[in-house]
Amino acid sequence: MTTSVTWESGLAFAVEQDGHHYRIDASPEAGGRDLGPRPKALLLSGLGGCTGIDVVSILEKMRVSIDGLEIQVSAESRDEHPRIFTGIHVRYLFRGRDLPLDKLERAVKLSEDTYCGVSAMLRPAVPITSEIVVEDPRDLT
Questions:
Q1: How far apart are CA 50 and CA 30, in angstroms?
Q2: I need a labelling partner for 90 at 20 to 30 A (CA). Which of 43, 98, 104, 112 fits?
Q3: Measuring CA to CA, how many Å separate 112 from each of 46, 72, 92?
Q4: What is the spatial distance between Cα 117 and Cα 101, in angstroms, rounded to a whole number?
């Protein structure tokens, strides 16, 4: 696994990863031009994507059909440099009818404790909490 990050101009960098291309940049407040996502935010996206892939795969093996899954990952940072994360919270928002909460909880726990490599790398450095929310479309009418 490799990635190539090449400086373009200002604080913007072009990224090539597994044949995909995107740009990262700093915020205007930090001297960037907002040409792409921030590196630390991509770390949170990586965590959400990693656990999401695990959870969907595990639920498929459990024969649990969901209508949707949104993973919201938020973090608190300290004010002084380096502005590291002091806490990360993962919110799993499942959508579907009659979803078995015990199986959702089991899939999330397996991802968090066993399968998600991003979580395993981050957990020693920062506390990670999570919650499960289930939306049944019948409850939204």
A1: 29
A2: 98
A3: 13, 15, 12
A4: 24
Q: Which two tokens stand for residue 21?
A: 């291309």
- Crossing angle of the two packed helices 101-110 and 39-61, in degrees rounded to 10: 130
Contact present, 24 and 11 (Cβ < 8 Å): no
Per-residue pLDDT tens digits for 45-82: 999 999 999 999 999 999 999 999 999 999 999 999 99
The model carries a pTM of 0.93
- Residue 124 neighbours by CB under 8 Å, 6+ apart: none
Residue 55: count of CB within 10 angstroms of its CB: 27
Residue 83 three-state SS: coil
* Both structure tokens of 13: 């960098």
DSSP label at residue 138: G
Bridge partners, 73 (sequence order): 90
- As a whole number of angstroms, the distance between CA 119 and CA 141 comes to 36
What CA–CA distance (Å, rounded) separates 123 from 126? 5
SS3 category, 40 = helix
